[in-house]
Design brief:
about 500 residues; two-stranded antiparallel sheet
């Protein structure tokens, strides 16, 4: 359990070192940042073994017992999210070695990137509601700066819009925490759950639930809280777009929402119904807006809204199979959406444009980008036997079993629509006649190609997570959500 603080200490320490020495020592930022993300990935993989052995571990900061002291908690859901975030982060920092050369002050990018990562890891491991807000703000502020990193007019405008919307979301969350503290007199998540189980939930707690839903819904870019995402994600450098769509909206939005509603406040039938409605609306709106886009990254951004809809829809169904499908799709989406944004970065790196109308025939000049993007596109569209097919199939089967026949039909139709706009992307960008302007272009540096290939290989093989020997990775995360308010008993039991 003493390793838990290192998920925050390592990226914070890395950010500090890079900011001090990154400008003075050549390649220092590249080496230190990648060593940092590699260490975090190895620790995340080790956490799977710890969860299998101990189920729950609690680290008491400063030795103070909760609820008086701050604690960090490692359970199945924590381990699942840590692996997802740090796997993507490691491959993104490798990709950035080559890609970020075209920007000045690369060391500042790595400093902000590691602050973003420390915030996300902190949100995942904290057992304290106010510290969740503190880490959320660290990650958010770093992301505002990273969206504006290119300092062009479009990027600055997108960053400002994103910062305004993000601040509104943070205000909702902070107000909810303050009201919940006034009602329970504690900030420890397990202790809040204990107090609520004794006092019951009244009008105040229902109002708090609405505030949390609006705040985390904004962070997750659920419709109708999605307006910031289509501007922010395309404007950021490709590695940051991959982080924002791949893991950021899932940690600050989906994970935080799950932890608060399932394990602290408890989920009622009304909340389940609202999640189903928001999920279905997000699925449809994101897909219809994506199909009309010419800008590759803008298409992918709207696609993220649609795919987050699948995850929220599955969580709203609330059955064990649906939650399994939702978390599995979260993991799959982190991989194939990160891959697709890295592909878009590779296209822009070589051609200087993201406009589909100006591309065509790129498979001849950029074969690795072309074939890896094909795998990512087919996986997100739910084409068998790729990972996205299995997670979508589980969600649809769970919806049918729970009696959501219309919603299941909508999910199938949206998946077909997803296939249509990703085929459009493949056709316009990689097939057909090669534009004469691109006769002399070539693939980006080897580090960019390496990350795309590894992510593509993982996209092909994620279906293996359903086999019995690997199933505990997903199932342990599902079990945490199925515990509901039993989370408090498990945490306090681990402390004793």
């Amino acid at each position: 359990m003493k390793m838990l603080p290192f998920f925050v200490i390592i990226p914070l320490g890395t950010a500090f070192l890079v900011s001090l020495f990154g400008k003075k020592i050549r390649n220092f930022a590249d080496i230190v940042a990648n060593l940092g993300t590699l260490c975090l990935l190895l620790l995340s993989l080790y956490s799977i073994q710890l969860v299998n052995a101990h189920k729950v571990l609690v680290y008491k900061v400063g030795g103070w017992l909760p609820p008086i002291g701050i604690c960090m908690v490692l359970d199945g859901l924590t381990s699942f999210m840590l692996v997802t975030v740090n796997l993507v982060s490691f491959l993104v920092t490798i990709y950035s070695i080559g890609y970020m050369e075209k920007y000045t002050d690369k060391y500042r990018f790595y400093t902000l990137f590691m602050l973003l990562l420390s915030g996300m890891n902190g949100i995942i491991i904290t057992g304290d509601l106010f510290n969740l807000f503190v880490f959320l703000e660290i990650a958010s502020i770093a992301s505002y700066a990273l969206v504006a990193f290119g300092t062009e007019a479009e990027e600055l405008e997108a960053s400002f819009k994103y910062a305004v919307m993000g601040s509104v979301a943070s205000s909702f969350i902070l107000l909810a925490i303050a009201l919940l503290y006034s009602y329970t007199s504690t900030l420890n998540m397990a202790d809040i759950s204990l107090v609520l189980s004794q006092k019951g939930s009244g009008v105040l707690v229902n109002f708090v639930a609405v505030l949390f839903l609006a705040g985390f819904g904004l962070k997750a870019a659920l419709v109708p809280f999605h307006a910031w995402l289509p501007d922010a994600h395309p404007s950021a450098p490709a590695p940051i777009s991959a982080m924002l769509s791949g893991v950021f909206i899932k940690v600050l939005g989906v994970y935080a929402l799950c932890r608060v509603f399932f394990n602290i406040l408890g989920v009622s039938d009304k909340i389940f119904f609202i999640l189903v409605i928001l999920g279905v609306i997000s699925m449809c709106v994101g897909a219809f807006l994506a199909i009309a886009q010419r800008d590759i990254k803008r298409m992918f951004a709207y696609s993220s809204i649609s795919q987050i809809g699948y995850i929220i829809f599955a969580l709203g169904i609330g059955t064990p199979l649906a939650i399994l499908g939702g978390l599995f799709h979260l993991f799959n989406h982190a991989l194939f959406k990160s891959l697709l944004f890295l592909n878009s970065g590779s296209i822009e790196y070589s051609t200087g444009t993201r406009d589909l109308k100006r591309l065509g025939g790129l498979n001849r000049q950029l074969p690795i980008t072309g074939y890896t993007s094909l795998l990512g596109s087919m996986s997100i569209s739910g084409v068998p036997p790729l990972g996205g097919f299995w997670s979508k199939l589980i969600i649809i089967i769970a919806a049918l079993q729970a009696g959501y026949f219309v919603s299941a039909t909508v999910a199938i139709l949206v998946s077909i629509l997803t296939l249509a706009y990703y085929l459009k992307f493949q056709s316009y960008a990689f097939f057909g006649k090669l534009n004469e302007a691109w006769l002399k272009i070539k693939e980006g540096p080897g580090t960019m190609r390496f990350s795309m290939i590894v992510l593509a290989v993982i996209c092909v093989s994620t279906g293996l997570l359903l086999i019995p020997i690997l199933r505990p990775f997903l199932q342990s995360a599902v079990n945490v959500l199925l515990l509901g308010n039993g989370y408090k008993d498990v945490v306090f039991g681990a402390i004793r």
